[in-house]
UniProtKB/TrEMBL annotation:
Name recorded for this polypeptide: Polynucleotide adenylyltransferase region
Residues forming coiled coils: none
Superkingdom of source: Bacteria
Shown residues within the full chain: 470 to 863 of 888
Recorded family membership: Belongs to the tRNA nucleotidyltransferase/poly(A) polymerase family.
Length: 394
């Protein structure tokens, strides 16, 4: 019904970008991007009013987001100008506004558009050879300045290449190498760089794109001392195994996968290098503290605490309780032998859910005078319960 509305408003609407690409690749993609030839904000506002859904605008960029009740989003952009002169030095080329909008995009495979208006619905529009490159499984930029305009595309190329099992085209490879050599990634703001690395780290299998980043000599942008060797690769393989284990075991429990891989990436660095890399990525003070703390404590647990003795469940509980799931998952992958792995797994499955049946309130009713003694009693009770010395009331 986007098409019908566009027609009623005297506009033309197209689905574009990743949505069309994934449609042709038969991959699911719930993010729909729409470009309208006309006023996208008016289009989105009318749609939202007619369907009783929420809508947000970016007046400055002439874009809007439709937000459906199930949280699905549809981005709407406007392509309003009727013709352009581009490139300036060549004779005037008349571009349709849609064509101009698509020309600004990153790779040919992302420039396909699907007409939505009635009468032409479903017609595929391919100005830049996107279909051919999809068929040839090639990632190709549209023009030589693409990566200069937006260096994040270096990382996007790697991400798409590995996700789809494509190859970056020869010319585009040369442009990437050149862009890296020219230090274009160094010029990128920390948040944007972090965002792109996060997107790579939440890919289904982050190892291939992370390895490819190494082939393109991208890592020095974070630290000269990241050594992408077999040891680090093995760690990433184990991290992925434990991340999958966590997902299957605790379906509803969120896990920030990028954080797990970031801990992995940093684990081979010296503390000062970790600090520099965090600075480069503009981590928040909270994130820096969390990294530094994990960096200091995890190895102490793995090589100090766990091998020292057979620990009671209560001791394991106390040792692991301060950690969030991401650090625990990292710990399991990093552990060299079975004992810590099993301990963390027990903690995940059992210990962390244990609590005392008795609460402070009950102690008060029993006539125990309030004070620090409460903590002591409840802690001891919890320990006894963890260690199986107190059983549930049946
Ligand atoms: N785009 C671009 N340059 C960028 C980022 C995005 O040209 N640096 C364009 C691409 O053409 C892309 C569209 O904007 O198709 C939307 O980008 P994004 O939201 O990243 O969507 P997808 O291509 O669908 O990527 P993903 O599948 O990872 O969501």
């Amino acid at each position: 019904d986007f098409g019908k509305l566009a027609k009623d408003l005297g506009m033309k609407a197209y689905a574009v970008g990743g949505f069309v690409r994934d449609l042709l690749l038969r991959r699911s993609n719930l993010d729909i991007d729409i470009v309208v030839e006309g006023d996208g904000i008016e289009f989105a506002r009318t749609y939202a009013r007619e369907h009783g859904i929420r809508c947000r605008f970016h007046k400055k960029f002439n874009t809007a987001v439709l937000i459906f009740p199930d949280d699905r989003r549809v981005d709407v952009a406007s392509a309003r100008f009727e013709y352009y002169q581009y490139p300036a030095a060549l004779p005037i080329v008349e571009f349709s506004s849609l064509k101009m909008d698509l020309y600004r995009r990153d790779f040919t495979i992302n420039t396909l558009a699907l007409a939505l208006n009635p009468g032409e619905f479903g017609q595929l529009i391919d100005f830049f050879g996107g279909q051919r490159d999809l068929k040839d499984k090639t990632i190709r930029v549209l023009h030589n300045l693409s990566l200069v305009e937006d260096p994040t595309r270096i990382l996007r190329a790697i991400r798409f290449e590995q996700r789809f099992g494509f190859r970056i085209g020869k010319q585009t490879v040369a442009l990437i190498r050149n862009a890296v050599r020219m230090g274009l990634l160094q010029k990128l703001g920390g948040r944007r760089l972090l965002h792109e690395i996060q997107l790579i780290m939440v890919e289904d299998d982050p190892l291939p794109p992370l390895r490819r980043m190494n082939e393109f000599a991208v890592w020095p942008v974070l630290s000269a001392n990241i050594l992408f060797d077999q040891k680090l690769e093995d760690l990433f393989v184990r991290l992925r195994e434990v991340v999958s284990w966590h997902r299957l075991s605790f379906l509803d429990e969120p896990l920030e996968r990028w954080w797990v891989y970031m801990l992995g990436l940093f684990s081979g660095l010296a503390a000062a290098d970790v600090e520099d890399a965090c600075g480069r990525l503009q981590f928040t003070a909270g994130q820096r503290e969390r990294i530094a703390w994990a960096y200091r404590t995890v190895s102490g647990l793995l090589w100090g605490f766990f091998p020292a003795a057979e620990h009671k469940p209560s001791a394991i509980f106390r040792a692991l309780q301060p950690f969030k799931p991401e650090e625990l998952v990292f710990m399991m992958a990093k552990a060299q032998d079975e004992t810590p792995r099993r301990a963390v797994s027990h903690y995940f499955h059992r210990y962390r859910h244990v609590s005392t049946e008795l609460k402070g309130r009950d102690l008060k009713e029993m006539g125990v005078p309030p004070g620090p003694i409460y903590r002591v009693i409840l802690d001891e009770l919890l320990d006894a319960r963890l260690n199986g010395e107190v059983k549930d009331r049946q």
